[in-house]
């Protein structure tokens, strides 16, 4: 199977992330696989990094495979904004800062 161009992949990422409902999360790897680029989770992270924090794209609903918020130097190494937005949507973090992906993981 031929993979799409990186521009097409990036558009798929944004369209897919907009489908994640409030109160649910997906992982970077899950988004990559659903867009036809398995094993390209870092590209998903890079694409979402380019989204403005106040964008209509719910970038905050994508977390790492451990169910944690990945640190971003763009936000000064503090990702409280992402966590705050998720908690405001009803997503619960445990004491170790993890989200239960079985409970809050989005299954399209």
UniProtKB/TrEMBL annotation:
CDD domains listed in its UniProt record: ATase
Pfam families: DNA_binding_1
Signal peptide: none
Highest rank taxon of the organism: Bacteria
Biological process, per Gene Ontology: DNA repair; methylation
Domain Methylated-DNA-[protein]-cysteine S-methyltransferase DNA binding: 9-91
Molecular function via GO: methyltransferase activity
Keywords: DNA damage, Methyltransferase, Transferase
Protein name: Methyltransferase
């Amino acid at each position: 199977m031929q993979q799409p161009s990186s521009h097409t992949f990036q558009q798929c990422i944004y369209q897919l992330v907009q489908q994640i409902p409030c109160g649910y999360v997906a992982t970077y790897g899950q988004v990559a696989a659903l867009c036809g680029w398995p094993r390209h989770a870092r590209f998903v992270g890079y694409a979402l990094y380019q989204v403005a924090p106040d964008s209509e794209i719910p970038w905050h609903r994508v977390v790492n495979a451990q169910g944690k918020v990945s640190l971003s130097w763009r936000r000064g190494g503090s990702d409280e904004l992402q966590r705050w937005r998720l908690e405001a949507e009803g997503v619960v973090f445990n004491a170790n800062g993890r989200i239960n992906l079985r409970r809050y993981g989005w299954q399209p």
